[in-house]
Amino acid sequence: MRSRSESFAILERALEAAGTEEADAAFLSVDQNISRFANSQLHQNMSEESASLTMRVIVNGAMGVATTTAFDADEIARTADVAREAARHSGPVQGFRGLYRANEPVPDVDSFDEATAAVSAVDKATPLRDIFAKSREVLFAGSYATAATSVACGNTHGVRRYARMTHADATAIAIGGAGSGYATRCARRASEADVAREAARHSGP
Prior knowledge:
The protein is α+β, with helices and mostly antiparallel strands and 205 residues long.
C-alpha cells in the first residue's frame, strides 16, 4: 500500500502528462492476503501487492479514459496519449460544466485499522489449526482474507484527496455427522471478522 506522498507524486506526474487544461487521475494501491482451507487443512495462502492509475482527460468537452499498472514516466506519458486519443474520438458530454474545483477540508473517516493491516499468514493459520485439532468430529472449509488499501485522486484544478482503508472477510463451513453450518462476516477490522472464531462457533463443546 502506497503512502500519501508516494500516491500524490504519481498523481502529479500523471496530471502533468495529461497535457490538457482539465484532467483528473485516481491511484489505487492494495496489499492483500487470503488463506484458504478445506477438510480441516490449510491448503493455500496467497499474497498480492497491486496498484493501478486511471487517467481521464477532457478535450473540447469530450472525455477519454485510460488505465495503467506501471508508473514510470514513459508509461504514464503513453497512458495520457491513449486517454487524449480516446477523447478526440468521443463526442462532448452533454451538460458537462468542468471538473470539481473546490478543495475544502474533508472529515476524517475511521476506515483504517493498523492491526488488520499487519495480520500475517501465520496469524491466520495458528488459531485455525488449534480449532482443527480440537474438533476432530467436524470438518471445516472456508477462507480468511485481509487487505489494506490506499486511494488517491486529484485533478488539474488542485483538488487532492487521499484515504486508507482495511477490510477482513471470513467464511467458515462446518460439516459434522449431524449436519452442517455456514457463517460469513466482513468488517473493517480483523477482530470483527475472525474466521477462527466463526469456525469455533460450529465446532461443538
